[in-house]
Amino acid sequence: MAKKTPIPVSKRNSLRTHRQIFTLNDEENKALNRYIAKYKVQNKSKFIRETLMLAIIKKLEEDHPTLFD
Q1: 27-61: string of b/e by CB count within 10 Å (b at 16+)?
Q2: Over the chain (69 residues), what is each successive 10-residue block's mean pLDDT?
């Protein structure tokens, strides 16, 4: 399988320019770190971003308006 060539930053469609900051308590932080260690997550920010967006998209799909309720 051929190796992918990285797309230069100037040509990317979705640059991440909006920073979001949140805090965790000690138990939440321990749980997150335990999960990351157990499942050998390579990129913590990517994991959090994808997990968060998956939950948001799933919720939006569940709550979409329907013609007949």
Answers
A1: eeeeebeeeeeeeeeeeeeeeeeeeeeeeeeeeee
A2: 71 83 97 98 96 95 79
